[in-house]
């Protein structure tokens, strides 16, 4: 029986896209993929700030979606990927609304008046919110140690990023907290789907699903918002389209499928700190001496969540 069960488990892994989807199989590789996703996401806010130098907020979101969908659709066609089963389309729709449309649109609108440091509050709270969504959606029950470490990490990141922005709430906070909720839902549903189909196909089909809407929205937005192309603006929109919107989500969903949604989500505790580093290097923003102390606290929390039973 044990041999048969092992064979069944291996066959299910193969069906899921050739990469282990069990958190106990090659967890190091899954962690690496999720970490690469975090690095890609950490550049999203600075790249969006660059993109806003050339495009209006609505145009930027539409253009990034169209570009990412073209790349994703090209990959699906080139590899002759079959259309997902009907039962998967509702989940793909949640991914599309959460990470393809909702999060990019809400954070882009917020970044018109918010600094990248303040916007990083969203990312600091996202791991805990994603873990909560996964517990409700998939019945996952992490240990008390996991929750304690996750909560401590979220408090540390939120406190640091709020302090970086002067401790004052802005009018952009409604957009940011809305983005937090829709993104957590999209991550959770994408992580669930990545257990039964390759992670890159999850985001690829979500992007293709949004393509008609993005084209129509882009045409409308570009007719009402001015466009002033420059090197940084073009680089910004290319990164958020290909790096953040497609490639980053490919490795992120694969990583979540391999090590589990709660553990993968906690790797994002490092994302705001990486974003702040990029904001210094790319946007000229300034950090306080609290940064290394917060970084150390976050790394400790990540280590604890990775060892705690998820």
Can you walk me through this structure?
With 310 residues, this protein is mostly helical. The chain has one domain. Helix content is 77%, strand content 0%. The chain has 13 helices and no strands. The chain has helices spanning 2-15, 27-42, 44-51, 57-78, 89-110, 116-138, 144-164, 173-193, 199-224, 231-259, 261-267, 271-283, 290-307. Helix 2 (27-42) packs parallel to helix 12 (271-283), helix 6 (116-138) packs antiparallel against helix 7 (144-164) and helix 9 (199-224) runs antiparallel to helix 10. The chain is globular and about 50 Å long. The chain starts with a helix and ends with a helix.
Key terms:
globular; disordered N terminus; single chain; 77% helix; mainly alpha; 310 residues; 13 helices
Q: Kindly, what is the distance between the CA atoms of the first and last residues, rounded to a whole number of angstroms?
A: 26 Å
What oligomeric assembly is this protein in?
single chain
- How big a fraction of the residues is strand? under 5%
How many domain modules?
Answer: 1
Based on secondary structure, the structural category is mainly alpha
Please report the number of helical segments.
13
Q: Low-confidence stretches at least 5 residues in length (pLDDT < 50)? A: 1-25
Question: What is the overall silhouette?
Answer: globular
**Describe the biggest sheet?**
none
Q: Would you list the SSEs in sequence order as H and E?
A: HHHHHHHHHHHHH
- Kindly provide the radius of gyration, computed on alpha-carbon positions and rounded to a whole number of angstroms: 19 Å
Average pLDDT level: 83
């Amino acid at each position: 029986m044990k041999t048969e069960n092992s064979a069944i488990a291996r066959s299910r892994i193969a069906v899921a896209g050739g990469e282990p989807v069990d958190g106990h199989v090659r967890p190091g590789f899954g962690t690496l993929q999720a970490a690469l996703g975090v690095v890609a996401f950490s550049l999203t806010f600075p790249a969006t700030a660059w993109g806003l130098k050339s495009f209006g907020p609505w145009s930027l979101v539409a253009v990034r979606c169209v570009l990412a969908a073209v790349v994703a659709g090209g990959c699906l066609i080139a590899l002759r990927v079959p259309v997902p089963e009907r039962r998967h389309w509702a989940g793909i729709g949640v991914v599309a609304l959460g990470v393809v449309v909702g999060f990019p649109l809400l954070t882009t609108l917020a970044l018109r008046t918010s600094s990248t440091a303040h916007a990083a509050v969203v990312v600091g709270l996202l791991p805990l919110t994603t873990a909560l969504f996964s517990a409700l959606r998939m019945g996952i029950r992490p240990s008390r140690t996991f929750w304690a470490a996750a909560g401590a990490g979220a408090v540390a990141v939120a406190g640091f990023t709020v302090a970086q922005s002067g401790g004052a709430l802005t009018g952009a906070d409604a957009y940011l907290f809305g983005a937090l909720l829709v993104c957590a839902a999209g991550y959770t549903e994408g992580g669930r789907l990545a257990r039964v189909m390759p992670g890159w196909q999850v985001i690829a089909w979500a992007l293709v699903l949004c393509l008609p809407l993005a084209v129509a929205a882009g045409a409308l937005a570009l007719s009402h918002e001015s466009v002033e192309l420059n090197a940084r603006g073009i680089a910004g929109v290319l990164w958020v389209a290909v790096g953040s919107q497609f490639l980053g989500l490919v490795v992120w969903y694969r990583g979540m499928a391999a090590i589990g949604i709660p553990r993968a989500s906690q790797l994002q505790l490092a994302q705001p700190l990486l974003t702040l580093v990029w904001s210094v290097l790319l946007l000229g923003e300034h950090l306080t001496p609290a940064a290394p102390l917060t970084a150390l606290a976050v790394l400790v929390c990540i280590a604890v969540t990775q060892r705690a039973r998820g």
